[in-house]
Design a protein that fits this description.
The chain is 29% helix and 14% strand. By secondary structure, the chain is of the alpha/beta class. It has a four-stranded parallel beta sheet. It has a two-stranded parallel ribbon with strand order 1-2. The chain is flat and about 60 Å long. It starts with 22 loop residues before the first helix and ends in a 5-residue tail after the last strand.
Length: 171
């Protein structure tokens, strides 16, 4: 991604290609399109210094970039009393991992869920927000889904109930 694409390992993902690897041409077209814009007319806004540093390593590195850290409403995002929710989610366990389902339910990640189910200690429970099982939950004793949490106060309660928040990804 820094100097060009070739032999793309993700041909079946966006942009999908069933036969030919056109990643080299696609990368060149994107570079030409973005770099044709005058540097005075484009500023990138990164959500963290880390994201800004990634941009600076790419073909967009000569363009200005400002970091605009995501702000939190500390009236909502604060530690809450969540012992009742914690007891409900733990169901006999004593360590709670909270995360977002995101891509966890895609077929290529099923091995990760299976690994976690088989290798975490018995007292550890996982709660994933943002999706529900389409089929019966294959790990009903260990991994629970709670669907989408729309209310910020309820989300803060889930964060407060957890021992740790994780956002695992293979990308």
């Amino acid at each position: 991604w820094k100097t060009g694409c070739l032999d793309c390992p993700n041909l079946r993902k966006y942009p999908v290609s069933l036969v030919f690897d056109r990643s080299k041409e696609g990368w060149k077209r994107k570079k030409e399109a973005f770099c044709s814009i005058d540097k005075k007319n484009m500023i990138f806004a990164a959500t963290s210094d880390w994201v800004g540093n990634i941009q600076r390593e790419s073909f967009l590195g000569d363009y200005p970039c400002v970091t605009m850290n995501n702000g939190l409403d500390d009236g909502v995002c604060r530690t809450l009393e969540a012992s009742a929710l914690r007891r409900e989610l733990l169901g006999g366990g004593d360590f709670l991992i909270f995360g977002f389902a995101n891509k966890w339910f895609q077929s290529e990640n099923s091995d990760t869920l299976r690994f976690l189910n088989e290798n975490l200690p018995e007292n550890v429970k996982i709660v994933l927000a943002g999706a529900v099982w389409e089929n019966p939950n294959p790990f009903p004793d260990r991994i629970k889904t709670v669907g989408f949490i729309k209310e910020p106060e309820k989300l803060a309660e889930y964060y407060s109930a957890a021992d740790v928040f994780v956002n695992l990804t293979l990308e």
